[in-house]
Amino acid sequence: MIEAKELLKALIKKASTDPQRGALIPIISALQSIGLDWKLEMIEEDMYNILLPLSSSPKLIVEVHYDVVPSVIEGYQTKEGEENGRIYGRGTSDVLGGVAILLEVLKRLGREFPWERAGVWIAFVADEEKGGKGSRHLASSLPSTIQYALVIEPTQSKLAFSSCGALEYELIIKGVPSHGSIPERGKNSITWTSRFIIKMEETLSKLNNLYNPDIPIQITPLFISGGSEEYSVPHETRLNFDIRIPPKVPISDVEKEVNSLLENDKDVEVHCKLVEEWAPSWETDEDTDFGQLLQKLYKEVYNEEPIFKVMESWTDAHNFWAKGIKPVIWGPGDLALAHTPFEYIDIQELEKGKEFLEKFFYRLLEF
What we know:
By secondary structure, this protein is α+β, with helices and mostly antiparallel strands. The chain is built from ten helices and 18 strands. It folds into two domains: 244 residues, 3-Layer(aba) Sandwich (Aminopeptidase), CATH 3.40.630.10; 110 residues, Alpha-Beta Plaits, CATH 3.30.70. A hairpin with a 2-residue loop joins strand 1 and strand 2.
């Protein structure tokens, strides 16, 4: 029997050496031992989805990505190992823990489970952490009978029927250098960048007051570089930043505010580009038959009324939503811990997640 805890450790070990593809090998090995029909779909060179088309007329898909971010970020190595009821390591929360429990549940159910009647497909998908190519390809190639998607991501096991969108920008700010002792003769690109971030926070605060979203619109500076150790007013600074945009906030309004700030400040030369295309927020109806199924199951497994949340980050669910498929996001793990050197997942939460998934597949027989 595949045990999720040990499988997760194997997935972490492989993914730590190859974040984009490493987990693929243990997933394939597990699927071969399970004996269900699966196929490898090439997205581009060295990028593959694994698809389990378990029904001739599927109503929904269960999807999880297997790629992770590198185990070393900013020179900090991610802690690994088991300690105090937790498993530490890159991808434990995002989202190899979800991969591991899904594989264990598939093993438990096996070939004898009436998959055809359940009307479900399952996919392990590449490239969520970079460009979303795996889910974009998948969403575009699914049969028209698929109406819903359960996307496994770290939600602390809550149900997310909505998700934030995002705008991600790169700015190149060109100032005017001068000797460091005479800063008034130059235009300091780092100073301008610092002031821009503060102005952006003030602008977004006004939008938060206007729209009063469930979680706030927020700017996150992701990368900043510029200047030197020489005694010179910095000439050029690069700033990458992301703006989280919750549901009910028009993404066009946020973009207008960014453009307005950039256009009204002529002190320096600024080159601006969107790093990615718009990723709008989305919402799905929690009162659909699928939504009701998940809520009843949540109450049974977790012994409390369903707790809804807004997913803070872009996920593969965006690509399903864009194709008219209604996504719901759920999964064990804490997104705030993902991409950090202390990422972990609680073993107890994994165990509850297995129970949820196994009962979920049985509920599909009546769906």
